[in-house]
Amino acid sequence: MLRTARFLSPAPSGPPTLHGGLEASWRRCRQDYGLDPATPALPDMLSGAELRQCCQRMGRILHFAGPEMDRAYAAVESVGYSIMLSNAGGVVVAHRTGANMQRGCRRWQLWPGALWHERGAGTNGIGTCLAEHRGVSVHRNQHWRSRLHGLSCIAMPVYDAAGRLAGAINASTFQPEGDNTNGMLIATCLLQAARQIEQACFMDMYRNHTIMILGMAEGTSVPMLALDQDRRVVGATHAARQHMGIAPAQEVSLCLLNDTTAPITPLRDAQIMAIDTALASARGKVAVAARMLGISRSTLHRKIRSLTGAPATKRA
């Protein structure tokens, strides 16, 4: 059994990017979905049986999301927000709110079973986040449907261990005094929760493998690789797959430190990142970094020369 290890934790990234532009979403609502903004109906609700099926299909994500939703709710409760987790289809599968807000959440369909996909509900936090695979903030009259202008919501995408979009984690409020001044703080809480959910799922799936984190995260996905006993990459998160040009859910089986003659390739970039990660974790000691990578010191020296053209400086 391989000892699970992190060679290097990602450095703290900057504040989350919340793209304010919702023009593309409004255009889809008008041109693609043909939604009437004056429609008074709220999002549809699934039956109890349908909701249970959605929860079952979420699998381990729902299990690992629970503690992160609790932490996020503890951070936003004081400003009147509730926390929801949806699946990739926009169905709310889990919810965190206070007893004093439950009636309002039910009235606004901020509740498990509500179907918040963009095609039906128009521009909204969960639906637009899922449609555009990015963090979004939708404040009051930015919602396409006028019926939803009393809501403010922020959402971040959540990815599973195979790099697929699994759903969205969302914070919403219907409080009349609610404003958007706390948006960045709430977005940061959701960003951290989304990363932790993905990491927990990935570490669980590859718990008998060596885990390598390639640099710092730039979005909700952390660039992580899982290596087997032969140091072959057998698993990769969404961010790592994007960097290496591997499609979500595509089977991964490659030798990270294979020789490559191509001048610039996604794999070559990943090799450089892996070596940099190991060297940083080993504080520049080549022998230690080589052991982390499962190769000899001479091989690592050769790889550094071939990939970067620079010799390794420390040999201890």
Structural features, described:
By secondary structure, this protein is α+β, with helices and mostly antiparallel strands. It folds into two domains: 23-202, 2-Layer Sandwich (Beta-Lactamase); 208-308, no CATH class. The chain is built from eleven helices and nine strands. The protein has a five-stranded antiparallel sheet with strand order 2-1-5-4-3, with helices on both faces. The chain has a four-stranded antiparallel sheet with strand order 6-7-8-9. Residues 1-12 have low confidence and may be disordered.
Distance between the termini: 28 Å
**Global morphology:** elongated
Q: Going by CATH, what is the homologous superfamily of the largest domain?
A: GAF domain
Main sheet makeup: 5 strands, antiparallel
Q: Structural class of the helices, strands and pairings?
A: alpha+beta
Tell me, what is the CATH class of the largest domain?
Alpha Beta
The overall average pLDDT, rounded, is 85
What Rg is obtained from the alpha carbons, in whole angstroms? Answer: 22 Å
- Elements, N to C (H/E): HHHEEHHHEEEHEEEHEHHH
- How many separate domains make up the residues? 2
Q: What fraction of the residues are assigned to beta strands by DSSP?
A: 5-15%
Helix content: 25-40%
| CATH architecture assignment of the largest domain | 2-Layer Sandwich
